[in-house]
Amino acid sequence: MRGRLLRSLPLERKRSLVNALRPLLFTSEQGDDGHAHHVVDVSPEDLRKLLSRNHFAPWDVFSYYYKHPEFGGEVVNVRRMESLDDDGIWWQTHVRIAEHPAGAIVWPHYEKASLAHPRAHIEQKGMEISLGLQTMEEEIYPQKDIEILKRSWSDDD
User: Fold this and answer.
1) Is the torsion defined by CA of 24, 48, 123, 132 positive or negative?
2) Which of 3, 90, 142, 147 is least crowded, fewest Cβ atoms below 10 Å from its Cβ?
3) CB neighbours of 92 closer than 8 A, spacing ≥ 6?
4) 2 CB neighbour count, 10 Å cutoff
5) pLDDT tens digit string along 60-110?
6) How far is residue 11 from each of residues 7, 15, 16, measured CA to CA in Å?
7) Does 157 fall in a domain?
8) Would the pLDDT of 157 be above 60?
9) Angle 132-120-123 (CA atoms, 0-180°, nearest 5)?
């Protein structure tokens, strides 16, 4: 009965259900000692618009929900397909953004694309946080003179 009910739901309802469950089941606490991030002087919405103009699209399936213990959970989760390498591996830049009193917290990283390589993606094989940070610093932020107010790094980055 339940399987039939889920199959009968429209795709948008299924997507809404997954989005509602992500924060409940797949939250990753990301404090200042967690995944490397920037605090920038722009709102999450303005940064989302800028990323959209740079071919980033919403993406939350196969993705943890990042939450800062003090400032709350992500409000933007986007990714951009970057390349297909010589070994046939698809790569993406993945960016999560949360509210911050000074603007936004930005958690970027470069990784294997989740749909093409789900196991490697979940196991974080090949993840390069520094490349995600570099993409934001060198390509995205300069377009709107976005200032990095704080850089936070962890020993794993």
Assistant:
1) negative
2) 3
3) 79, 80, 81, 82, 110, 111, 112, 113, 114
4) 6
5) 666 776 667 677 788 899 999 988 888 888 999 999 999 999 999 999 999
6) 9, 6, 9
7) no
8) no
9) 80
